[in-house]
Amino acid sequence: MPDATTAEKTTPYWWDAAPVRPIPPRPLPQAVDVAIVGAGFAGLSAGLVLAREGRSVAAFDAANPGEGASTRNGGITSGNIRPDFATMVRRFGEARAIAIEAEGHAARKFLYRFIAEEGLDCDFQPTGAFKGAIGYRQYDAMARSAEALRGKVGIETYAVPFAEQRNYVGSDFYRGGAVRMDIGGLHPGKFHAEILRIAQGAGVAVHSGTPVTGIARDGDGFRVATASGTVRAGRVLVCTNGYTDRAAPFLQRRLVPVRSRIIVTEALAPETMARLMPRRMMLGEGRQLGHYYRPTPDGRRILLGGRESGNKGDPVGPSLLMRAGLAQIFPELADVRLSHSWFGNVAMNRDMLPRIFEADGIVYASGFCGSGTVWAPWIGMRAAYKLLGQEARASSAFDFRPPASVPLYRGDPWFMPTIIQGYRLQDRIAMLRARR
């Protein structure tokens, strides 16, 4: 075992039980009803709907299916919306803000029903989630938000005062927080493998190691150029999210890939896990660069993730930063060894909302902003119904104008280190104002 400053593995913890693998090569079809770019949660979920409706579908992935964010995330079924409820009311009006929050609740319920009805073996645990407040003022805002969501949307959520905090998380770092009982956790590697299984069973032709290099109009359809040849498609759905490249330039100008790093501890003593995570909940916090963390599905380790400063560089520094975050929350884990440390890209856009939209006949389902475990299957399926013309089933509060493009951006997020440092400064100021 290496020393405590490094991790034994730099691949995702989830790959130990559910390794990503290439799909055996198959000939490209000459034509399909729908070509899907990306074979992660969103692309495969869309393909499943389309194939079950009798459409011929080919899904193309530049790497192994699921090798991107789908199997690199924390497996928390949060369906978070980055802007808080009050901000969305100011930005979009109360009606859309309520519709967005209600859709998040519906998407989570759908996900849990989907797992049960399809018999997906993915270690799903409906634990609930606790979000810690940095100061008492933030706690008051969380309490008001919980009351609004409970009354307006019907979500089971409630505030937790500081005096009761250790019933939820074995730390004094926060000043109370809020619980939502409609959030749980799953094993994202197993979840993707199961969606891949049922999508292929429904007839979706999945092509791994087959990057799409261009999409062009061809009469009433499209020519989809890939590294293995060209396919004619009646419709095209792009679901590349944080791994969008020049094959989809319209989307690339609107999505910024941001690295998220995750560490996993060595196995901890049962009494330690019981003390630090007494309810085995999913956990998060109210900082701009806040951490998300949880017990692994077997309840033996702690997984913690957060944003990296840039998109390049040595992984040791970011791993040490995550370790420091873990020790800030749980001081007794300052010297704990790490078994895994890895990163993946999440996709952010300027208004920080998931989106379904159409441009020049191509439909896009993307922009999950770090919460794709819930949003990717939901948005992917809504986009599939949109392609099918089933308006009632396609209806979504996220189906509206495309996100605004990012000025001076063409795929290289050169500005992200500056933005991350700005968020760090905001967090420092918030901590000082909290008078901790």
UniProtKB/TrEMBL annotation:
Residues 33-385 form the FAD dependent oxidoreductase domain. GO terms for molecular function: oxidoreductase activity. One of its GO terms (cellular component) is cytoplasm. Keywords: Oxidoreductase. InterPro entries: FAD-dep_OxRdtase, FAD/NAD-bd_sf. It comes from the Bacteria. This is Oxidoreductase.
